TrEMBL record:
Pfam family, one: tRNA-synt_His
Molecular function per GO: ATP binding; histidine-tRNA ligase activity
InterPro entries assigned: aa-tRNA-synth_II, aa-tRNA-synth_II/BPL/LPL, Anticodon-bd, Anticodon-bd_dom_sf, His-tRNA-ligase, HisRS-like_core, HisRS/HisZ, HisRS_anticodon
GO CC annotation, single: cytoplasm
Family the UniProt entry places it in: Belongs to the class-II aminoacyl-tRNA synthetase family.
Localization of this protein: Cytoplasm
Listed NCBIfam families: hisS
GO biological process: histidyl-tRNA aminoacylation
Reactions catalysed according to its record: tRNA(His) + L-histidine + ATP = L-histidyl-tRNA(His) + AMP + diphosphate + H(+)
PANTHER family: HISTIDINE--TRNA LIGASE, MITOCHONDRIAL-RELATED, HISTIDYL-TRNA SYNTHETASE
Gene: hisS
Protein name: Histidine--tRNA ligase
Length: 415
């Protein structure tokens, strides 16, 4: 206990992962890692904190994350550091720092904790976790299709694809976007009186953001706003058509949603979200798009990239069945003299990769109770008389059946 004798709590917006929560969490990450590997993605890890400029530049200084959500602090050496709010900027920084800009494309898988100062609610935390996939250094729509296809394959492997829809849009190339921006400024200027304060502030600087607004009043104005499609250049429209062909070919269903614009400053062409109606307001489980200029912001060459990030907590909540708790073998010595032999049996089982445990104390009854409590599938009971004959009692804790088994055969029987 601390001085005031009050139990300390986790920080607001953070959670402990124990038992089923941890199993769900690990299952999401393990599954994503395995599927991403089949697509040829290599896992990277970068530091949890970075020079604040990595994110201030990386996300663009008008993004919500940078303006309102970053955990930034000055360290003892006077440097401004930030706990990463997302993975992409750090990955692009790492591409440059590690001299990999000449070895493109790089296909990166990422998993880890992220930090945002947000209002905590179901599916929204201050420390949360993302899985993330990026192709750095490819301008081909085939890369977009592969990245999206990998996301879809992960959702399928998790058994949640049936609850999720891919919403797809394009933001076109620079020329398309400039024309679209002008059309948006004209439209929103005519409806200024109905826009939220936030959106008014974005009107000149970044009108695309208004399309993304969660404000109800804004949403009504946005409903009739022009979409980008009339403003796409021929090349941008061709890119988008190619991507749709590829997605159809690899069997990823999607529906077009011209309101998907994504929050960051560097997006171009593809923008997409996998959304669900199962999680209330926190309906986006996975979001991403194509971006340019980010690697340049980190001091590297112009590098076209495509990627996505998904919230592990939101995916964990969507899992229908929690992964089952592991069921091991309980080794139960009867009497002190049997304990040494029991240690040998434990070593042999563990050496063969079998989950095995022995209570640290207790008589036969106590030990059997514990075996049941930890959900052991079997108990290996070692009595002194049996030990003398080189055998053990093997009890199936599911059926209750018990049989005598030579100790030398335990590993084969339980493996
Ligand atoms: P939202 O609109 O829900 O705030 P976002 O656009 O900020 O999402 P991204 O930056 O694209 O989200 O992050 C990708 C994914 O990470 C989201 O789709 C979501 O699943 C997850 N995510 C984002 N912020 C949080 C958070 N605070 N807590 C839990 N998961 C989050
Ligand atoms: Mg957000």
């Amino acid at each position: 206990m601390n001085k005031e004798n009050v139990a300390l709590q986790p920080v607001r917006g953070t959670r402990d992962l124990i038992g089923e929560d941890q199993r769900r969490h690990a299952h999401v990450i393990d599954t994503a890692r395995r599927v991403a590997a089949t697509y040829g993605f290599d896992e990277w890890s970068t530091p949890v904190f970075e020079d604040t400029r990595v994110f201030a530049r990386g996300l663009g200084d008008t993004s919500d994350v940078v303006m309102k959500e970053m955990y930034s602090f000055t360290d003892r050496g006077g440097e401004s550091l930030t706990l990463r709010p997302e993975a992409t900027a750090g990955v692009c920084r790492a591409l440059v720092s590690n001299g990999l800009t000449q070895s493109l494309p790089q296909k990166v898988f990422y998993a880890g904790p992220m930090f945002r100062y947000e209002r905590p609610q179901k599916g929204r935390y201050r420390q949360f976790h993302q899985i993330d996939v990026e192709v750095l250094g490819s301008a081909e729509p085939l890369a977009d299709a592969e990245v999206i296809g990998c996301g879809w394959a992960i959702l399928q492997a998790l058994g949640v694809a049936k609850d999720v829809v891919l919403e797809l849009n394009t933001l076109g190339d620079r020329e398309s976007r400039d024309a679209y921006r002008a059309a948006l400024v004209a439209y929103f200027s005519a409806h200024k009186d109905k826009l939220s304060e936030d959106s008014l502030a974005r009107l000149e600087r970044n009108p695309l953001r208004i399309v993304d607004s969660k404000d109800e009043g804004d949403k009504r104005v946005v409903a009739d706003a022009p979409t980008i499609h009339a403003h796409l250049t021929e090349a941008a429209a061709a890119f988008y058509a190619k991507l749709q062909d590829h997605l159809a070919r690899i069997g990823v269903p999607f529906r077009e949603n011209p309101r998907i614009v994504r929050g960051l400053d560097y997006y171009s062409h593809t923008a997409f979200e996998f959304v669900t109606s199962q999680l209330g307001a926190q309906g986006t489980v996975l979001g991403g798009g194509r971006y340019e200029g980010l690697v340049e912001e980190m001091g590297g060459p112009h590098t076209p990239c495509i990627g996505w990030a998904a919230g592990v907590e939101r995916l964990s909540m969507l899992l229908a069945e929690p992964p089952p708790a592991p069921r091991g073998v309980a080794v139960v010595p009867v009497g002190e003299a049997a304990e040494a032999a029991a240690l040998d049996v434990l070593q042999a089982l563990r050496g063969a990769g079998i989950r095995a445990e022995m209570a640290y104390r207790g008589n036969l009854k106590r030990r059997m109770e514990r075996a049941n409590r930890i959900g052991a599938r079997a108990a290996v009971i070692l009595g002194e008389a049996e030990l003398a004959r080189g055998v053990a009692q093997l009890k199936d804790l599911g059926t209750g059946e018990q049989a005598e088994v030579p100790i030398a055969e335990l590993v084969a029987k339980l493996g």
